[in-house]
């Protein structure tokens, strides 16, 4: 979430192009795009079947693709190599000025929505890059719409049931997954987490307010090793699904850390998107308050995932760390056997934060190696800044008990 102009400028800078060159180079892929609501790749990543439900809202209490607030996903023919502009169109952007306001903006919209509304905001953002707005909007509005396919695909594993007394006719018992509903649910859950963060932030005007929480969420990933081959909006974080009760979905077996929580429990590839954002920030030559706030928000994205994993370990039966080689500080943090000590003596916090900082630097180095990018060297001041961000969160948790 953030400035459209900044998003495009950052993408262009990575390719060593101007924003106009970057847009022109990617717009030629528009003939590979189809606006879709149901995408067969969510059943099998090689299925090319896709369709678009453009029926009117029914308003009868059932959530359908016609009733969803966000009605577009984009099927891309050819996979992740051609998804650049599609990714931009379905990304959310805020009209707020500061990073903090953008994070708190619950009315952000996708670039696709701004184009369709002919919003002055997106016109201003595009023209600020020296790009003509009207021709670009015209191309966006004419992306082709998915039609009913002429035939199905055997890999969809659809279930047909014969209709009695009607020879050769069948009921279709399984349908294509409505991807936009899965995405809309995920967006609403993440928005709820955003409200929760603001209500717990003493600097926020919403501090102390009420918020909802969803325990035992299930994260669903599609597409195997390369999730982008499913559709443009299936990010590496996957989609969040509410628990189905009854029956209650059993949680994944927790892998206990042996020597170091960060290196043993946090697989760095899981954070590829966030590491990419961090790398882009490091390469930006601007050094101002907005950039510092942006860096802090990126680090907080890491912190949220880390606290989730730590909480899972804290809920295990007390004493599990005695069979490991964890440092005393990490054991105090993660093992409920040391719960009272964790609250009474906070000397464990800073060593844990330094462990986090070292892990993050190591993960960033691995990311640059895989992406074949020259790693930006970091100073001790930056390492301490990363650690300080986690420190403030952990100290707040201790205060809140």
Sum up the structure in keywords.
single chain, 401 residues, three-stranded mixed beta sheet, 11 strands, 44% helix, globular
Characterise this structure.
- It comes from Megasphaera elsdenii.
- Pfam families: Cas_Csy1.
- This is CRISPR-associated protein Csy1.
- It is built from 15 helices and 11 strands.
- The chain has 401 residues and is mostly helical.
- The chain folds into 2 domains: 228 residues, no CATH class; 150 residues, no CATH class.
- The strands form 5 sheets. Strands 4-1-7 form a 3-stranded mixed beta sheet, with no helix packed on it.
- A hairpin with a 7-residue loop joins strand 8 and strand 9.
- The radius of gyration is 24 Å and the shape is globular.
- It starts with a helix and ends with a helix.
Strand order of the largest sheet: 4-1-7
Number of domains: 2
Helix content: 40-55%
Structural class: mainly alpha
Q: How far is it from the N-terminal to the C-terminal residue, by CA? A: 32 Å
Largest sheet: 3 strands, mixed
Return residue spans where pLDDT drops below 50 for at least 5 consecutive residues: none
| Average pLDDT rating | 81
